[in-house]
Amino acid sequence: MAIERLRAVLDTNVIIAALKSRNPHSPTAELMADWEAGKFDLLYSDDLRAEYARKTVERAVDPARSTAFLKRLDQFGLCVQVGDVIPVIKADPDDDKVLACAVSGGADYLATYDPHFLPLGESYQGVRIVDGLHFLYIVRGDMPPQG
To answer: Structural domain of residue 35, as residue ranges?
Structure first.
């Protein structure tokens, strides 16, 4: 019986932190390397990809790093079709796109550092919500995945 890889959505703040990191051993940079090594599937939607592209410019990410990431995302990420986005996160409705991608894609995890997700608790519709460091521990096998 084949073991399925973890399916995850990385919130924009995790992606930005990884792309801006100068330390290849930072948790977010390590997460990106683990994704590129095939240790988990990265889910994204068209809306989330557009947000990644927009926020990398707004946050002054090196354009070459941003372009390279978006190309890898297009090649190796799993694009999820998202229907109607249900308003859930009142503090920041843009976060609803991230949550909708995770739910629509059947993600195991949504990794974020955004406090707007805290009112949802540890999970939402079967998607575990963790910060980037804890997701890294899970990918490494240092923490057992919880369902």
So the answer is: 6-140
CA distance 60 to 66: 10
Q: Within 13 A of 32's CA, how many CA atoms are on the CB side?
A: 24
3-state DSSP assignment of residue 38: coil
Task: From 96, 97, 95, 125, select the one nearest 109 (Cα to Cα).
Answer: 125
Instruction: Please indicate, yes or no, if residue 145 is contained in any of the structural domains.
Output: no
Q: Is residue 124 part of a domain?
A: yes
Write the CATH number for 65: 3.40.50.1010
Q: Taking each helix axis as running N to C, give the angle between helix 46-58 and helix 12-20, from 0 to 180 degrees, rounded to the nearest 10.
A: 40
Q: Contact, 83 vs 107, CB < 8 A?
A: no
In one-letter notation, the amino acid at residue 72 is R
The pLDDT tens digits of the residues spanning 14-47 come to 999 999 999 988 999 999 999 999 999 999 999 9
